[in-house]
Amino acid sequence: MKTNIISKLLLSLGLVFVLGSAITQVRGDSQAVAPPGQLPAVTIHSTDNVIRGQTGSFVLDMRQPTSSEQTYLAFHPYVNFSVSGTAIPGVDYVALVSPAYIGQSGYGTILVKTLPDPRAFNRQAYSVVITLEPGLGYALGIPSSATMWIKP
Question: What range defines the domain where residue 76 resides?
């Protein structure tokens, strides 16, 4: 009788643990950086502001994957991003196209080729903001957004 009650109690505790884990995964608790053994995390930063007429860059950094993730990365080496800011694509810089490529080294770049200023009378700086977007094969790290200024 005592063994039967203990078996049922252990079974109930096991079910609670399994259901609790499943609910956490379905709910999608967000984490800034993926835990070890899961998807690699991608971060972004700007190399610096750029003077009009030159090319600036954003650097993507994917946390070095473990050996099991390395295989997955080989099939999903692209990171989605969106572009915003005060600079106008096609006017201030050559329009950018998502996704960006991440090499086997775990790094990638997004080049921003600036254009001559058609608004010569209004000499001011304009911003380009790149925000990483969710996608297959990676998690979003911190920072997931970066800004570059196009200076006159």
Answer: 32-151
